[in-house]
Please model this.
Amino acid sequence: MLELIWKNLEKADELFIPGLSIDCVIIGFDGEQLKVLLLKWKGADAWTLPGGFVLKDEDLDTAAKKITYLRTHLKNLFLTQFEIFGRVSRNKLDPKIELDIPNLFKLPARLESWLAQRFITIGYLSLVKIADVNPKPDVFSEECAWFALDEIPTLVFDHQDIIDSALDRLRKQLNFLPVGKNLLPEKFTFPQLQKLYESILRQPLDRGNFQRKILKLDILERLEKLKEGKAHKAPYLYRFNQKKYQQKIEQGIGFL
Amino acid sequence: MLELIWKNLEKADELFIPGLSIDCVIIGFDGEQLKVLLLKWKGADAWTLPGGFVLKDEDLDTAAKKITYLRTHLKNLFLTQFEIFGRVSRNKLDPKIELDIPNLFKLPARLESWLAQRFITIGYLSLVKIADVNPKPDVFSEECAWFALDEIPTLVFDHQDIIDSALDRLRKQLNFLPVGKNLLPEKFTFPQLQKLYESILRQPLDRGNFQRKILKLDILERLEKLKEGKAHKAPYLYRFNQKKYQQKIEQGIGFL
Model:
């Protein structure tokens, strides 16, 4: 399967929709902060979002799934399109980044003009549990790694703008995205849930207010106490009631 | 300016990005219900969203502005991209609609295959005050008219899906879109504001709760009473405090 993308890329001008790409912002949460999954191109000091092209007869969502799998080995991701990026010169490389893409990927010279054309890219947002996945770099990349949002290295093209926009959308659609369910472990404490919301909203939240609002939603099931520290101080673990959670996400979770 | 689109269309294959279009869902509110602006193609019984193509060296937002102006004569619209539609066969015509597009628009035969290729379209949402605008059909259209959402005629391609998706986005981003400011007249009553929110959320809202939530936001200025009916029963008029309104929209208006 991974070999396929090599073969496809050599015939990119025949197989793919010209001037259209997909870039995926894969977001995880490590219990303390949000992280984003990035790839480092082989033989170049350049980090990028996992991205790729769309076959001429392929639906966009199918392409997004395939691209994330081919480039990071992650399967069955929750993926939702969030914005299309079409500034005229968006795929011009920053002159600080020295990169000869066709050479780097050993592509036929014929493809130089195909790759240099104006590209419009569709941004997809994905939310994953960091502890549950095992991302690996694809054949074009030498690393695939999680970065805290304030430690993102210099990225190619407008990929930093794409990440910023994904985080903005995450905040604005917080009530309708399965944020808690997709980013937290199955069992979590109230402080973990609050930290997640604080990371997305980028502001501290009042503990009492937050707890009251969340409990009012009636989407949590209380479990045993966390087995850590002194038993009488240990916080309770919770999990989402899947059915109620799903209903609330569809109606708008009414948290914001 | 309107002539330009004719000339451009004859050279569509040279001038425009292949396979990419923009369609605009222009939403208004008449005090009672939401309406959408549609065009009827000349010489065919087919209604469409105002749409068009993107020049090879044109930013997407610039193209969206130009397209709405060229096709409906509306200027300076609030426009925001909401989704990209890319199902493989989305621009196949419903066989129930008999339409020969190149012939209809008197286009060179050369363009037949250009028009028949797979098109991906970017949906833009616009919110306008119906009473303040005077839409007119363009050279391709014989009518340009507002339709209540439950009276939309059969539309070409997937334009009904595009409208449904725009309304869904309007509901989900209600807290971050200038809904009240763009859809209501400058001065409005509380019942009008409530009706607008009810139309978007498609559910009745409790009057007391709604009033309390909105007043707590501190974005309204109370004006004189509406000069209608018996003076002691007349409702007060309100307007938005522009500065506070803008701040709240950026933070999330916290209504939902």
